[in-house]
Design a protein that fits this description.
Elements (H helix, E strand, L loop, with lengths): L2 H16 L6 H9 L10 E5 L6 E5 L6 H5 L5 E5 L16 E5 L2 H10 L8 E4 L5 H10 L4 E5 L2 H14 L4 E4 L12 E10 L4 H5 L1 E11 L7 E7 L5 E5 L27 E5 L9 H10 L4 E7 L2 E8 L4 E8 L2 E7 L4 H14 L8 E5 L4 E5 L3
Helix pairs in contact: 1-2, 2-5, 8-9
Length: 376
Amino acid sequence: MTDDDKALRLALAERLAASGHLRTEPWQAAVEAVPRQEFLRSGFFERVDSPGPTAWRPILPDDPRWLGSCYEDTSLVTQIAGTIAPQDICGEILREPTSSSTLPGLVVRMLEDLQVKDGHRVLEIGTGTGYSTGLLCHRLGEDLVTSMEVDPEVSIRARAALGHAGYAPLLIAGDGLAGHPDGGPYDRLIATCGVTELPYAWVEQTRPGGIILATLSGWLYSSELARLTVEEDGTARGRLLDGQVSFMIARPQLPPPLGLLPDIDDGEERTTGLPPNALDDWNTRFVAQLAAPHAQRLTIDRDARTEHLLIDVDAGAWAAVAQDGETWTVRQGGPARLWDDVEETVTQWRAHGAPGLDQFEVTVTPDEQTVTWSRV
């Protein structure tokens, strides 16, 4: 590592402290010590700003922009379509990102919110590039850190990067939703992927009084950090922390393919007082997601108008909302009435003063996960 690398690390730590993400000396020392570029030696993808579908092009270490970009406070995409790394292509690719190096500001915010203390044993779900794993190793010592990654190739690259940076934690290639019971119980568990339901296995593997920090998400793609404390009775309870945190959803919990669309000319029709653009608001969409947790959202243009669809593929339920003059109408079909559920839940939330996400409480038991809000 060079003096330039050190200067970039120090500058990054200074920026993160100034922004309020980096709040304590031990984590500042970790940011100043751990070289983020070691975890990006395979390069990353840069978004191409152009009309049409989102395209990505690789930025490799021989590019003069590479090193400086490694120390920007931004997320850097490191894998496309589940298998494609930056060195695998020339030109551009139009597939969806599947792995990334999270922006350092969010990484350190989460590590600060995890409230670790010396001697704590930590299980990290989602190794990714290994940068956050390296920060944990520097703060706690590598013997106290276990990290899981679902993608074996990603895990191999992270192992190499951590080795080059001087760390050798226990890395497991496997389904992080199942955790790693052989290493438990843990004092802290942190997930760097989104989950639609927090696995009870995580609760079982965290000691009473321990903390779980994870991003609760859903198929409408509104999400937030939840910090839960495990209790003596085997439940976990806590609140959302607020701040519109977003991670890729854990692969086993991704939504199913939409397949053929249902016949949206069929079904029961009524007027609705909830226009579909209400779901453009992050908090409203989070509430709607609680009412229809297995619904996906899309729009289609036909007959000179836009229709807004919610579709629950597995249940076979759907709702199509469209503007009819000055009013909105909804047609619904299948065994459930998705828009009825969404409208009722959003109306109740608004009647209680539309409390912010930091007023939501999460409870996880062996049987279920519940998310409720406090009245304002």
